[in-house]
Amino acid sequence: MNRQALLDSWVHHTADSAPCSVAEMNSRVARFEEIPSSTKAFADTYIPGHQRVLYSVIGSGVTDDPNFHPKIRAAENFHIDYIVAPQGCGAALHWHESEEVFVVQAGRWEVDWVDGETQQLHTVVLKERDTISVPPFVHRAFRSLDGETGLLLSILGGKNPAPVKWHPDVAKRAQEHGVGFDADGVAHQSLD
Prior knowledge:
This protein is mainly beta. Helices cover 10% and strands 31% of the residues. The protein has helices at residues 3-8, 22-26, 168-176, and strands spanning 37-38, 53-58, 78-84, 94-95, 100-106, 109-114, 121-126, 131-134, 140-144, 151-157, 165-166, 179-181, 187-189. Strands 1-2-3-10-5-8 form a six-stranded antiparallel sheet, with no helix packed on it. Strand 12 (179-181) and strand 13 form a beta hairpin.
């Protein structure tokens, strides 16, 4: 291609910006100390070994508590959360209808998954800046190896993610701890 054709090609690769006021952009900023957090965002958090804090950053994501809202509600096809957990704790086996990406921000984390064909459980250890992309409908679990010094970033795909589907073994353990869902799908623990 000649020089003039290369320079002229920019006409097909430029565009004006969409409107975005300072107020609109400020509504899309999440300062860590302002991010809503929950220790009971999911049914499995009532089961020993699955305690964690979920920080809801962007998009509705998925949670067993519909009253838990993110700092930034506007999300175009993705949802972001931060996760902090005591050493050895994290999410129990579950799956989503879309891919989920985990990026380790601090510490070391184990991610388990179940091969649906063989029913084998596999584990990979991730350290800072490591990333894993878990496919849709694959049961996955994760846990912090370093405790509260670890920070995991979760990116969930999809515009309106469906509720989590738990592994049957998780349901049995949750039932043993009196955990279930009300008619609206909100997780509760019976105290009687």
